[in-house]
Design a protein that fits this description.
The chain is an all-alpha fold. It has 13 helices and no strands. Helix 5 runs antiparallel to helix 7 and helix 5 packs parallel to helix 8. The longest helix is centred in the middle third of the chain and has 26 residues. The relative contact order is 0.14.
C-alpha cells in the first residue's frame, strides 16, 4: 500500500500541508487576536523609532500633499486640466492614495520580510498580509480625520453625507487587502518584484487622478475610453471622497457598486490565490 494512502487512512496529515479552504478560514479566525496584536505592535514600534512618534502618521501625507500640490500646481497653472479647488483636490488624492500605496508595498514584503517567522512558527501565513493592511488602516483613520479638517479650510462643512465614508473606507480596505494578497504571494515566487512594486505603485499614483480629474482627462483624449475612467477602482474611491468632502462636490453614487464589485472580486481572487501557495511559503525562501 502507498505510504501516503496508509497515513491518510489513519488520519495522519502531512506536516506543513495546505488545509482545505474552510479549514484555512477557520484557522485564520482562530488567529484573529494574533493578527490584531501584530498590526498594533508594528504600528507602535515603527513610530516609536522617531522622536515625533505617531505624529509622523499625519506629517508624511501632509508633506507629500504640500510638495505635490506646489510642484504640480505650478506646472499645471493655467492649464485646462487643472481642476477647480486644486488644493483640497490634491490633499484628498494624496491622503487617500497613501493607504493604497502602503498596503500594496507592505503586502508585497509581508512574507519575504518575515522569513524567520514563517519558517519557525505554525500559523496561517495569510495573517501577515492581513496584519500589514490592518496596520495601514489603523494609520489611515487619524490621517483621514486630519484630511477632513484640512479640507474644511477650503469651505467643506460636515454633513450627513460624511457618513458615506463608512462604506467607502470599508470597501477601500477590502480592495487593498485583496491587492496585498496577490502581491504577497507573487513576490515570494518572483523576488525581484519587490524591487519593482514601488515603481508600479508610483505609476498608479500618477495616473489615477490624484492631480487631475481622470473623467475629464479621458473625455478630452478619447471619449470612447470613458468606461475606463468609470471603472478604474482608485478613481472611484477618489471621486466619491471628493464628492463627499469638497465644497459643491457631487457624489457619484453609481461608483459605490463599481467599487464594491472590484473590492470583493479582488479580495476573493487574492485570498484563493494566496491560499493555493500556503504550503510553499517558507520553503521557497
Amino acid at each position: 500500500m502507498d505510504m501516503a494512502r496508509l497515513a491518510a487512512d489513519h488520519g495522519l496529515e502531512r506536516v506543513g500541508g495546505r488545509p482545505s479552504l474552510p479549514q484555512y478560514v477557520k484557522q485564520l479566525l482562530n488567529r484573529s487576536d494574533f493578527t490584531y496584536t501584530l498590526a498594533k505592535y508594528r504600528m507602535q514600534s515603527e513610530n516609536e523609532r522617531n522622536r515625533l512618534g505617531m505624529l509622523w502618521v499625519l506629517l508624511r501625507p501632509a508633506f507629500s500633499a504640500l510638495i505635490y500640490g506646489t510642484v504640480f500646481g505650478f506646472i499645471m497653472r493655467g492649464a485646462t486640466a487643472r481642476p477647480d479647488d486644486f488644493a483640497p483636490f490634491v490633499i484628498i488624492g494624496v491622503f487617500v492614495l497613501e493607504f493604497f500605496n502602503t498596503s500594496m508595498n507592505g503586502g508585497a514584503k509581508s512574507i519575504i520580510s518575515n522569513a524567520s517567522l514563517v519558517q519557525s512558527l505554525p500559523f496561517p501565513r495569510i495573517v501577515l498580509p492581513i496584519a500589514t493592511v490592518f496596520q495601514n488602516l489603523l494609520n489611515f483613520i487619524p490621517t483621514f480625520i486630519f484630511m477632513a479638517l484640512l479640507v474644511m479650510l477650503w469651505g467643506a462643512k460636515p454633513g450627513w453625507d460624511w457618513f458615506l465614508f463608512i462604506p467607502l473606507v470599508f470597501l477601500f480596505w477590502v480592495f487593498n487587502q485583496g491587492v496585498a494578497f496577490i502581491f504577497a504571494r507573487a513576490t515570494v515566487h518572483f523576488r525581484d518584484l519587490s524591487q519593482v512594486t514601488p515603481f508600479i505603485s508610483r505609476m498608479i499614483f500618477y495616473t489615477s487622478g490624484v492631480f487631475f480629474d481622470l473623467k475629464v482627462m479621458v473625455e478630452k483624449i478619447n471619449p470612447a475610453l470613458q468606461p475606463f475612467a468609470d471603472w478604474q477602482p482608485l478613481n472611484n474611491v477618489l471621486a466619491i471622497a471628493r464628492g463627499i468632502l469638497m465644497k459643491d462636490g457631487v457624489i457619484p453614487y453609481d461608483y459605490f457598486w463599481h467599487l464594491a464589485i472590484w473590492a470583493f472580486g479582488i479580495f476573493i481572487i487574492g485570498f484563493v490565490f494566496f491560499w493555493q501557495a500556503e504550503e510553499r511559503f517558507g520553503r521557497d525562501e
